[in-house]
């Protein structure tokens, strides 16, 4: 069942300078398929249509999708797909062995879900340039020991290299949102094999670590069912202080702790 139109929360980027900067951030796409999430009125679509080998624009809004089909019917290799991105199988959008480039102004109310979808298809996507709320960008790029560091941070940084490129004020959108937005580039680089963790079990473990952010990491793990002596021994083995909170522990240390507890 499709979401009702008032919930789509579209805020269209109307700054040509910002639009061009986003397209430039994708790099050279002359020999690549680009997937655009939520093309809206087609401003970025028009720029990409002259640069990409092939462009697939995924638009949920029926009226906008129809308008885009009319506009781009004879303007280069552009495919307009009326679909919910959360049900999109990115693997089917590839041509041969190429990896996809993804671009989009993500709807605020499903930003995290879309990011998780992209990470799920990290093997099919090389890089993504996406616009998100500034606070979400801060969480994606956060460092251990900061307030923004959490489950989303670990998830993103286990899957990709995160770069914050530019922050845009509400005035460059129509209608203007109530928050600033940040453009983020995600270069997919999964670290599961490097760090010796199994993705599904590791993220279940990470959620347990951050279950109550203000509690000590050891307490959260005991609440998740790990025996106290085992937790204490594992923390010592990987040199994490017993008083540490999860937000103070790096991705690498969390992976080491998971391996120790699983061992």
How would you describe this protein?
Helix 1 (16-25) crosses helix 2. The protein has helices spanning 16-25, 43-49, 62-71, 111-120, 134-140, 151-159, 192-195, 199-209, 217-223, 228-237, 251-262, and strands spanning 12-13, 33-37, 54-59, 78-82, 100-105, 125-133, 160-168, 173-174, 181-188. The protein has eleven helices and nine strands. The strands form two sheets. Strands 4-3-2-5-6-9-7 form a seven-stranded mixed sheet, with helices on both faces. The protein has a two-stranded antiparallel sheet with strand order 1-8. The chain has two domains: 9-190, Rossmann fold; 195-262, rRNA adenine dimethylase, C-terminal domain (Helicase, Ruva Protein, domain 3, Orthogonal Bundle), CATH 1.10.8.
- Helix segment tally: 11
Q: In terms of per-residue confidence, which ranges show pLDDT below 50 for 5 or more consecutive residues?
A: 1-7
Strand order of the largest sheet: 4-3-2-5-6-9-7
Mean pLDDT: 94
**Quaternary structure:** single chain
CATH superfamily of the largest domain: Vaccinia Virus protein VP39
* CATH fold descriptor of the largest domain: Rossmann fold
From the spread of the alpha carbons, the general shape counts as: elongated
């Amino acid at each position: 069942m499709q979401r009702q139109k008032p919930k789509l929360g579209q805020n269209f980027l109307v700054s040509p300078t910002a639009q061009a900067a986003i397209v430039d951030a994708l790099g050279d796409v002359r020999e690549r398929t680009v997937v655009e999430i939520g093309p809206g009125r087609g401003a970025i679509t028009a720029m990409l249509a002259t640069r990409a080998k092939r462009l697939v624009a995924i638009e949920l809004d029926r009226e906008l999708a129809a308008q885009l089909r009319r506009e781009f019917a004879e303007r280069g290799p552009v495919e307009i797909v009326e679909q919910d991105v959360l049900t999109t199988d990115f693997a089917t959008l590839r041509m041969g062995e190429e990896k996809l480039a993804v671009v989009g102004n993500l709807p605020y109310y499903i930003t995290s879900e879309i990011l998780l979808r992209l990470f799920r298809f990290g093997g099919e996507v090389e890089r993504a340039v996406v616009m998100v709320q500034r606070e979400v960008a801060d969480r994606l790029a956060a460092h251990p020991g900061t307030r923004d560091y959490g489950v989303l941070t670990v998830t993103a940084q286990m899957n990709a290299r995160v770069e914050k490129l530019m922050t845009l004020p509400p005035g460059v959108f129509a209608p203007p949102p109530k928050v600033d937005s940040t453009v983020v580039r995600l270069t997919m680089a999964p670290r599961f094999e490097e760090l010796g963790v199994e993705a599904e079990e590791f993220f279940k473990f990470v959620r347990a670590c951050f279950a109550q952010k203000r509690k000590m990491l050891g307490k959260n793990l005991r609440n998740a069912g790990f025996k106290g002596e085992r937790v204490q021994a594992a923390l010592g083995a990987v040199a994490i202080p017993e008083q540490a909170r999860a937000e103070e522990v790096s991705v690498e240390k969390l992976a080491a702790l998971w391996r120790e507890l699983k061992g």
